[in-house]
Amino acid sequence: MTLRTERPPVRARSGRRPLPPLIFLLVLAVAALGVWWNVFRQDAEQREQQERACASAEAAPPALDPATVSVRVFNASETGGLAQQVADELGNRGFTVAEVANDSSGREVTGVGEVRHGPAGDEVARFLAVYMPGAESWEDTRATQQVDLVLGPEFTFPDSLATPEAVEAALAPATDADADC
Description:
It is a single chain. This protein is an alpha/beta fold. It has a domain at 66-180. 44% of the residues lie in helices and 15% in strands. The protein has 4 helices and 5 strands; from the N terminus they run H-E-H-E-E-H-E-E-H. Strands 2-1-5-3-4 form a 5-stranded mixed beta sheet, covered by helices on one side. Strand 3 (113-117), helix 3 and strand 4 form a beta-alpha-beta unit. The chain is rod-shaped, with a radius of gyration of 35 Å.
């Protein structure tokens, strides 16, 4: 039996640090940070786009069935018979016309006209405003969902009413955006 008393030779340290592996790890860490920064930035952009879409969907007029909307048409212009023409056209488009008359409120109407409604008829008024672009909204104290369409001095028939295609186009984005919210 032999005893080994000698140790294998130990390699002397040179005092150098493993520089290439450290550089590789540093580059890898910077690349990982860059990827995460890009992911977070894209996520923030997507959230902002969704918030803008939802905000526009909330501001967009609701898509209602015209048969469920009761509207009174009042003439505040100097053109005789204008309210009846508009009421007939709205009736052809499916609205329920409750009354046709001259405006007796004493309120001065400017522009193409205005849509008068109470707090309960806010959605209905926004829907009806799509049919008469440029009409101002006027909220009063009525408790019903009944809406008044008051024709102003700048209203011309049929140019001031939106075409069925324009109405459909105005209501389409609201239904598309609702699905994303």
